[in-house]
Amino acid sequence: xxxxxxxxxxxxxxxxxxxxxxxxxxxxxxxxxxxxxxxxxxxxxxxxxxxxxxxxxxxxxxxxxxxxxxxxxxxxxxxxxxxxxxxxxxxxxxxxxxxxxxxxxxxxxxxxxxxxxxxxxxxxxxxxxxxxxxxxxxxxxxxxxxxxxxxxxxxxxxxxxxxxxxxxxxxxxxxxxxxxxxxxxxxxxxxxx
Length: 193
Hints:
The chain is mainly β. It has one domain (54-192): UDP N-Acetylglucosamine Acyltransferase, domain 1, CATH 2.160.10. The protein has helices at residues 3-6, 12-17, 181-192, and strands at 9-10, 22-23, 27-30, 34-36, 41-43, 47-49, 54-56, 62-64, 68-70, 75-77, 82-84, 89-90, 95-97, 99-101, 120-122, 125-127, 132-133, 138-140, 144-145, 150-151, 156-157, 165-168, 173-177. A nine-stranded mixed beta sheet has the order 1-3-6-9-12-17-20-22-23. The longest helix has 12 residues, at 181-192. It starts with a helix and ends with a helix.
């Protein structure tokens, strides 16, 4: 990354100063994001999080592996837990919602109302290695996206997805199998580091 662009990102040293304790090397987080709950976040090596991302982790957790890119405008609701494994990418304006509300009308859905009147539905989201989430997609709670799987733009994921597959749609449907060439590229990248 060129020097002028680096000034727009916090580096690992600066992030440790603001309270992120579990943070790897070569981490760049935009200075234009919202993070709540830094003590519930762990970040591996070679991670970049771009502008206008919202990470809400005052409860639950966010665990980011190595070689992760989270594009601008992403929303991570971490109360049920979110784990994003190595070499995964989340494209702009996507939402990972490990917590949701009951919309049946039995409860109120509003964080400003006493919790006894609300019902949170929580479940961990896990993105296995080499996952790609296309732009403006929504991943719901209690979902595991299998290794090497890609999700097309504008998709809605509310179920577990198989490994090495390409999915898209509302609701998401399998389109085809995905090639595994990225595993060879992963070996080359790891030999450099």
